[in-house]
Amino acid sequence: MSESALAAEASLGDLQPVAMLEIGSPIGGSGHLARPVARAGAGFLARCPAFCREPAVHGRALFFLFLSNVLGGASFAAMQLARAGLPEITILELRLVVALFCLAPLLGRDSLRWPYDRRDTLRLVLTGTLGFAAPLALGILGLRYSTSTNASILILLEPIGIVLLARLFLKERAALGQTLGMLLGLGGATLVVLGSGGDASLLAGSHLLGNLMLAVHGLMWSVYTIAAKPVLERHGSRPVTYHASWVALLALAPFVPFELRGRPLFHGPALPSLLWVAALGLGVSFAGTYLWIKALAVLRPIVIAVFVFVQPLVGALLGRIVFDDPAGPGTLVGGLMIGLAVLAIAAPEARRGRGADPRRRAPPRPSDASAPDENVSTTRVA
Length: 382
What we know:
Layout: H1 3-20, H2 26-30, H3 34-47, H4 54-82, H5 88-107, H6 118-145, H7 148-154, H8 157-169, H9 176-195, H10 208-232, H11 237-252, H12 255-260, H13 270-296, H14 301-307, H15 310-322, H16 329-350
């Protein structure tokens, strides 16, 4: 069977559920036309070369990844503003509730299902606890004892952790050009945070505890990327994002009573803090996490890693605009270096689909009805 025919066969499962979604149409009303329409679409895809489709998928994933890191870069400032009126773990719980409230309608009845076998359940629990709940808690608690600028410096440990864990567990090697791009991005991000008033001495006694927490926080975010990658080969982005958020919510819940014991819920302005929590839940925990998972389903960890360097750049720009933090020439030079690093790795990735092997596609399980529009994002490119 030719590669184009294999691609068409793999696409049949994608097109049929999409056709069934047309509510009120002859397809959605009876479902009798779903299979003929799907077959017709599969026939078209069989005549369309793979490179007509894959670059578009990768380009969209790269945009999702960029936007996710822009939102992530804004999160440190937003958390500092939310902390003015609410305790830290309570902030995390509330923003996860907002995210789950937004995600549940996307899954419909499938939000009540747990479609994972034992192996994927263990991976999802690992993703939601060590890769999601733990870095969230360490990040916001670290801000109590350190600064948001230092957090921007120490988040640079995340891409390093992603590359190392991808090599260890996914057997993915970084090419020479990708390694150079990583180093260029790392250098640029360091210039950005130091040029924006960063604490060059991260071992200073006044911030040592907070910086250690933020360092572990940066490394543990890499667990999220690596642990979630295999699960995405068998499930869509929506259920993985939704259930990982539930695991994180449940993992943090036991700490809330201890945090609130002997203290009021609000220790500052209530309304502004709640608005910032809502913004964090909607913009970061929901949109940012979902876009990250969508990109992770398609892109390789080395590409995911280099885009993290966008976060300190966004943080420095927001610090300059919102908090009037200093921004020297190093910020501009570092920003240009980050841009070059992202382009150096993203440009080849956008064209990578031309050599993709459609037989490596991992189709969803027949019982996973929640992934009709996610399947096209589950192409594994190793």
